[in-house]
Amino acid sequence: MSRRPVTFGAALMSSWALLLGFGILMLGDGLQGTLLAVRADLEGFSATLTGLVMSTFYLGFLLGSILTPRITMGVGHIRVFAAFATLSSAAILVHALFVTAPVWIAMRLVSGFCFAGLYIVAESWLNERATNETRGKLLSLYMVVTYIGVGAGQLLLNLADPQQFELFILVSILISVAVVPLLLSARSPPAFHDSVRIGLLELFRLTPLGLVSMFAVGLVTATFFALGPVYARRIGLDIRDTSYFMTAAVLGTVLLQGPIGALSDRFDRRKVLTATTLLTSIAAVLCIAAARVSNELLFLAVGLFGGFAFPLYSICIAYTNDHLDPRQMIAASGALVLVSGIGAIIGPVSFAVIMDRYGNQALFWSIAAVHAMTGLFAIYRMLSSAPVPLERQGPSHATAVHPSGSAIESIQHYSSEETGYDLEDD
User: Fold this and answer.
1) Domain with 374 in it
2) Which of 141, 179, 119 is nearest to 13 (CA)?
3) Is residue 51 one of the residues assigned to a domain?
4) Among residues 108, 20, 126, which one has the least CA distance to residue 60?
5) 423 in a domain, yes or no?
6) CATH number reported for the structural domain that contains residue 378 in this entry
7) Residue 379 confidence (pLDDT)
8) Does residue 426 sit within a domain?
9) For burial by CB atoms within 10 Å, which of 98, 156, 186, 228 has the most?
10) How many CB atoms are closer than 10 A to CB 115?
């Protein structure tokens, strides 16, 4: 049964509690990742060990993405959300009590699993509020709330000493408080439904560039949020400037996401994807050069890097959908998230090993190399295959990419109402 169209105002009124709770959750998530990376560096963890600790989050997230829909169908959205928030709130406190790598690895696994459940429940609930007439505006507002939360979370690092308990307690409080608006919402939760899946090999056959680019995006995004604070500390930035460094990347994304998405709708999407990934590579090299000049130039360079790197997630999804039958799109989103998640697990560990061996600047050299190779592969695909006609390109929507790699497309295939496919023109 299709949903009755409503105005954006009505959709916003029914979703404000979700958006408020999610914004608070993003504050905690943004602070949590940077806090743990900085604390690990202060405790003398090697870059390799820090990368291993941080990448465990993405392994837990991947497991949570797979298992949460099954758990939710058994006990319901509200119980899952409350249980996972409680566990993740407790997990961050355990980090402060036991500063040892084995405990942190275990707790990051728990946190990743729980945050996957929190994102899936909250985002599927939000998607259920939207209709064809309101989805674009509602998801854009969701994106703004997400980026504001993640960016402001970086700045909270300045409120206390990362070597003390206060910031860990603050993260726990934010996660706990984020539950309140959702639990007090009088609205009915959405229902999960099964969907038909598409295999990775079939998806690669249909759109190899989409899959390769998504793997690169997951690899780089997770690596930056996991090791960016470590890099900033090791090149001499203090706590305040480390928070500015991370915030600049998020701010760059806010400024450039819209224009890049608009260009990808107007021109051959492969050309926009190729140009953006090559510009990301150049921006990564600029970060290396700027770090030798001044902090201000470094913040500008990392802002350009974030502005080019993170919108690639949305372009990859839109480009992949251009090559699919409408009934394949939602199932394919799950495969894309899986590929991105695999990259997110591999990235922090492998790049950390490179940092330990070749020095701090090897982080951005490695990131530049990944995007340069992706750009070359994109050029090869443009030379060897015909483009999708502009009239067949579907519209792209800005997709908010969290530090954990979550995006609202990752859960849309759980919220269809009849056949397992959401056939609305998203």
Assistant:
1) 8-414
2) 141
3) yes
4) 108
5) no
6) 1.20.1250.20
7) 92
8) no
9) 228
10) 30
Q: Who's near 164: CB < 8 A, 6+ residues apart? A: none
What is the structure's pLDDT at 129?
A: 64
Could you give the CA distance from residue 126 to residue 381 in angstroms, rounded to a whole number? Answer: 36
Closest CA to 255 of 146, 152, 144: 144
- DSSP letters, 185-252, are --SPPP---------HHHHHHH-HHHHHHHHHHHHHHHHHHHHHHHHHHHTT--HHHHHHHHHHHHHH
- How confident is the model at residue 400, as a pLDDT? 53
Report residues of the chain scoring pLDDT below 50. 1-5, 186, 408-426
C-alpha torsion 256→259→260→261, nearest 10: 120
| Six token digits for residue 421 | 């496919």
Q: What is the pLDDT of residue 98?
A: 92
If DSSP codes are grouped into helix, strand and coil, which group holds residue 267? coil
DSSP state letter for 27: H
Sign of the Cα torsion 116, 118, 121, 125 reads: negative
Instruction: Please count the structural domains in the chain.
Output: 1
The closest of 207, 375, 399, 389 to 275, measured between CA atoms, is 375
Residue 81 lies in a domain: yes
Token reading at 295: 């902090």
> Tokens for 94?
């355990």
**Please, what's the largest Cα pairwise distance for the chain?**
60
Distance CA 168, CA 171 (A): 5
* 36-64 burial code (b ≥16 CB/10 A, e <16): bbbbbbeeebbbbbbbbbbbbbbbbbbeb
What tokens appear for 116 in the block?
């996957």
| Distance from C-alpha of 252 to C-alpha of 259, rounded to nearest angstrom | 12
The amino acid that residue 158 corresponds to is N
Task: Give me the helices (H) in 98-207, please.
Answer: 101-129, 135-155, 166-183, 200-206
CA–CA separation, 240 and 34 (whole Å): 12
Report the residue count for the chain. 426
Token pair of 84 as six digits: 């996972």
Looking at residue 247, what is its pLDDT?
93
Tokens representing 272?
């926009």
Name the DSSP class of 394.
P
- In 3D, which of 285, 334, 281, 330 has the Cα closest to residue 308? 281
> Distance between CA atoms of 302 and 252, rounded to whole angstroms?
8
